[in-house]
Amino acid sequence: MQTSSTNIYERLCNKSIHEISLLLNIPRSTVSGIITKLKQLGTTATQPPRGRPRKMTERGQHMLKRTLRRSRQLSAESIAKDLQTLCCLQISTVHRELHGMGFHGQAAASKPYITKCNAKRQM
């Protein structure tokens, strides 16, 4: 059984890379890469992802967001302890996960205490 990419390669093998790229309207470097991959591996299928799988699941990320939204002033260490007790996740990279989700440690804006009297003076 042959894949569609090998069929295309067999049909277009007598044409140059430049001609194939013009026919398919894709860059020459892409065509060259596909042909090289076909020759070396025999297929254009992608290889499995490399590296260590993520420890934090989507459920764990949801729990992390909920914990953070409940109390914004918790430290990363206390959040890690909460996650460990709530959903049995022992994660040391809470800070990295929070950055990945878009939460960054920022100091609260200082707001002056405005009384009714001060508000009248400012007007």
TrEMBL record:
Domain of life, source organism = Eukaryota
Ranges of compositional bias, category Basic residues: 62-72
Q: List every stretch annotated Disordered.
A: 40-72
Q: Spell out the InterPro entries in the cross-references.
A: Homeodomain-like_sf, WH-like_DNA-bd_sf
Name of the protein described by the UniProt record = Transposase Tc1-like domain-containing protein
Organism the protein comes from:
Staurois parvus
User: Lineage of this protein's species?
Assistant: Eukaryota, Metazoa, Chordata, Craniata, Vertebrata
